[in-house]
Amino acid sequence: MNKLKMACLTAAIASSSVSFAGGLLTNTNQNVAFNRMMSREASIGIDGVYYNPAGVVFLGEGHHLSLNWQLAYQTRSIKNGYDLFKNNVNNPITPREFKGEAFAPVIPSLQYAYNKGRWSFQANLALTGGGGKCTFDNGLGSFEKIVGETAMGAWGLAKSLDGALGANMFATDAAFGSEPGKYSYNSYMHGRQYYYGISIGAAYKVSDNFSAFAGLRTVYASCNYYGYVRDIKVGNTPLYTVLDPTKTDAADILLSCDQTGLGFTPIIGIDYKTGRWNFSAKYELKTRMRLKNKSVNQAPSIGNLPENLAKQITGGLTQKFMSAGMSQADALAAAQAKTAEVLSSPNVKDAMVKIKGKFDSSLGEAVGEYEDGKKIAGDIPAYLTLGAGYAPTDDLRINVGFHWFDDKNATSYNNRNKKLDRGTLEYNAGAEYDINKRFTVSAGWQCTSYGLSDEYMDDKSFVVSSNSVGVGGVIRLTSRMKLNVAYFHTFYEHKKTSEKSTVIAGDYTSDYTRNNNVFGVGLDVKF
Question: Taking the CB of residue 48, how many other CB atoms lie within 10 A of it?
Answer without folding.
Answer: 34
